Amino acid sequence: MEACVPALRRYAGALLRDRQEIDDLVHDCLVRALDRLHTRRDDAEMRPWLFTIMHNLYVSRIRQKRTVGQPESLDDVAESALAVDAVQDQRVRMKDVIRAVEQLPEDLRSVLLLVTVEELSYANVARVLDIPIGTVMSRLSRARERLRHGS
Amino acid sequence: MSGVTPSINDDDLHAYVDGQLEPSRRPAVERYLAATPEAAERAAAYHAQREMIRAAFAAKATEPLPPSLSLARIIGQRNRRQQGTWLFAASVLLALGIGLGGGWVLHTAATPGRTQQAMAYLEQEALTSHVVYAVDRRHPVEVVSAETAHLQQWLSNRLDRTVVAPDLSALGYHLIGGRLLATEHGGAAALLMYDDASHQRISVLLRPMAAALQAPDAVIQQDGVNGRAWIRSGLGVAVVATLPPDDIARLATRIGADLGTAG
Predict the structure, then answer these.
(1) Which pLDDT tens digit goes with each residue over B96-109?
(2) Residue B198 contacts residue B165 (beta carbons within 8 Å)
(3) Nearest residue to B33 (alpha-carbon basis) of B5, B54, B52
(4) Is the dihedral angle over the CA atoms A59, A61, A67, A69 positive or is it negative?
(5) Which residue among B18, B74, B98 sits closest to A34, beta carbon to beta carbon?
(6) Mean pLDDT score across all residues of chain A
(7) If pLDDT is split at 50, 70 and 90, which confidence band does A129 have?
(8) SS3 for chain B, per residue?
(9) CA Rg value for chain B
(10) DSSP strand pairing (B235-241 vs B215-222)
């Protein structure tokens, strides 16, 4: 479980902006995971299980926020920022990649990062996000096309 | 080349890029890519994009973690919150229907993977417990050694096997006491704590394991804490302390002999 914490934090960092909120989310995820360890099947993989707990916590937080009147606007992003250009400086490029990914709508971003960075199988991504596998594939496709064309 | 070309779709391209394509489908996809420049270009672009994203986000998992996310600390906070008495912990285990059976490994077959996993859990639990409890000057244990008989009876009941605290006095270490641990994966474990004249503390973790599981001594090493762990005769044993590996080896030999789990 301990070995998964950096990856959880990285993924939380892609969901939320505020540092404190990121660490709070991971912290709550670990606490809940410890509470539920006894319900976990022996053969269940640890990583997808933890990501599922964290995703559920994240979703309920977003809902809470919405009910107090703070709708998240994920789509009003400057589209030009999504283009991944070949810039000379590697570090600038890395930053651009992160920024472009962060500016994707949340539903596309989650799928893209769980697949590419966290290396979960498509089936596990579907489980974590509680969506059909067909939706995983279409979101993955849309995320990649957006990054590719910057639109 | 087979006569029938299975239809290749967008999902196959992604699976190809992500290494999630079924091996049997791979040749067909590769033929398709060779024959379809547009798809090949797209696959190449996705691949490059994937590598860029992975490289960019790799660094994000190496950032130092804040103390609030230390698992040892979170477990420590939970234990303090739940402290009350050890009876509470025991009653929770009973309420959950676990603990008496001796844990998740009890009914599983002993494959190399299982043994490895059991050892990994054993080592991690020993390290985490040691980090949490050995530094606690006031409450390192729940039942003190003055009540050794009670301690041994209690732990024996909880672990469903006779637990006799190893005698380490020949090596200069004396039993402080013990506590019951609710471990990961639903089993109960006993933690025995010893110290010497200089208050150097040793943690000994005992955890029932499937009778079929066997693992020879393995060396544990993490952040200055050394230890050894092994599984024999249905018992997982781990000893950890901030001591040189040689001292740990001597302690491990003594503990193994006392518990009747020596190799």
Answers:
(1) 433 333 333 333 44
(2) no
(3) B5
(4) negative
(5) B74
(6) 82
(7) very high
(8) CCCCCCCCCHHHHHHHHCCCCCHHHHHHHHHHHHHCHHHHHHHHHHHHHHHHHHHHHHHHHCCCCCHHHCHHHHHHHHHHHCCCCHHHHHHHHHHCCCCCCCCHHHHCCCCHHHHHHHHHHHHHHHHHHHHHHHCCCCCCCCEEHHHHHHHHHHHHHHHCCCCCCCCCHHHCCEEEEEEEEECHHHCEEEEEEEECCCCCEEEEEEEECCCCCCEEEEEEEECCEEEEEEEECCEEEEEEECCCHHHHHHHHHHHHHHHCCCC
(9) 25
(10) unpaired
Q: What is the pLDDT of residue B129?
A: 78
Residues of chain A contacting residue B79, judged by C-beta atoms under 8 Å apart: none
- Chain B residues at the A interface, defined by Cβ less than 8 Å, are 10-11, 14-15, 18, 20, 42, 45-46, 49-50, 52-63, 65-66, 68-69, 71, 74-75, 78, 96, 98, 104, 108, 124, 128, 182, 184-186
Helix A19-36, helix A5-15: angle, nearest 10: 130
List the B201-208 sheet strands across, edge first.
B143-144, B174-182, B188-195, B201-208, B235-241, B225-232, B215-222
State ipTM. 0.81
> Which of A9, A116, A137 is the closest to B65 by Cβ?
A9
Predicted confidence at residue B150, as pLDDT, reads: 76
3-state secondary structure of A130: coil
On the 0-12 / 13-18 / 19+ scale of CB atoms within 10 A, A69 is: exposed
Alpha-carbon gap: B11 to the closest alpha carbon of chain A (Å) = 6
Please give the Cα distance from A3 to A137 (Å, whole number): 28
Q: Using CB atoms, which residue from B46, B96, B182 is nearest to A144?
A: B46
pLDDT of residue B92: 42
> Are the beta carbons of A34 and B78 separated by less than 8 Å?
yes
Number of C-alpha atoms within 13 angstroms, CB side, residue B224?
Answer: 2
Sign of torsion over alpha carbons A54, A55, A56, A57? positive
Q: Which residues of B touch A112 (CB under 8 A)?
A: 53
